[in-house]
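User: Could you write out the 3D structure of this protein bound to flavin-adenine dinucleotide? I've included everything you need below.
Assistant: Certainly. Input first, then the structure.
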Amino acid sequence: MHPFILERPRDLEAALALRAQAGRNDAPVEYIAGGTDMVQLLQEYARRPERLVSLAGLLDNRIEVGPQGLRLGGGATMAEVAAHPGVIEQFPVISEALLESASPQVRNQATMGGNLLQRTRCPYFRDVGYEACNKRAPGSGCAAIGGENRWHAVLGTSDNCIAAHPSDLAVALVALDAEVEIRGVGGQRTVPLADLHRLPGDTPHFETILEPGEVITAITVPANPAARRSHYLKVRDRASFEFAVVSAAGAIEMDGSRIRQARVALGGVGTKPWRVPQVEAALAGASLDSTALQQAAALAAEGAQGRGHNDFKIELMQRAIVRAVETAARA
Ligand SMILES: Cc1cc2nc3c(=O)[nH]c(=O)nc-3n(C[C@H](O)[C@H](O)[C@H](O)COP(=O)(O)OP(=O)(O)OC[C@H]3O[C@@H](n4cnc5c(N)ncnc54)[C@H](O)[C@@H]3O)c2cc1C
Ligand code: SF4
């Protein structure tokens, strides 16, 4: 494991100050929250910070459900959020996405902020034996393009990186128009979750819009009648402890036998959590007839580009959308 110094600041202000001086990305000073991703990366030498600033005990971990919607403290664990009665009842897609993630041990330890900021599972990023990885070593190339790319993205890719975003939670949240509260030395701001992660473009090593030292302090989800009728469908290689090959989050408000509004997002296929507004627009006013659902789902393939081994995802994601929408609508 890469050696490091662990800083235990007494409050969040001190943590922000320690981290802010260290620069934007893969910096010599980094935060650690639950540590479930960071420690793996240190073990693999994929990240080599000199210091880790612990956020343990410094972040709000409350879970609040009210008329305005849902608020999740950045330090709440995956297990706590998944088991919260208000989340299960009013935002089932969030609870389901979390329960389909990782293992009970990981979920007991991992936090909301850390989940959104976990790094890609691209094996070339995590295995430093491969030299070509623009995300880990900018300018070195991309071993996945032309390599083994069954796990990689088909949407939002560039010629510099095709890594899929790994978080299941983020897919459910982006479907529900979640926002992220951020705090840095310069103050506080709120951004839509859809804008938190960046497309790889020419700079895949810059993964988010966070400024150096900024911390995710909370996630908010506005109240929406569609959220109650929601479902997370995850297709994976084995039934537990596995990341998504393809996933779909669907949230549906019905008007009699027709869909009044739909919220749909995809995981395992995008370089960031991938909302599909064109599918949502086609679903509005549609019946649950399978032809109508398939026609709407087909629009998700706009702009999709397979790289060989992952071509199958383009059809699979359409099927996942149909199944997620049907299941949500009948909930
Ligand atoms: C075996 C295994 C299986 C897994 N399977 C899945 C899965 O199926 N689906 C899935 O979605 N995930 C899965 N995961 C990933 C897991 O969800 C993440 O490791 C976890 O959510 C990260 O949270 P953490 O608090 O431990 O973050 P850490 O590991 O502590 O940190 C992760 C990153 O976030 C940064 N960070 C942490 N908190 C904050 C904050 N509040 N503000 C700013 N930066 C912060 C850290 O600096 C670091 O870069 C799996 C993990 C393991 C180990
Ligand atoms: S897909 Fe991205 S993370 Fe994977 S090897 Fe290519 S540049 Fe690195």
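The chain has a mean pLDDT of 96.
User: Perfect, thank you.
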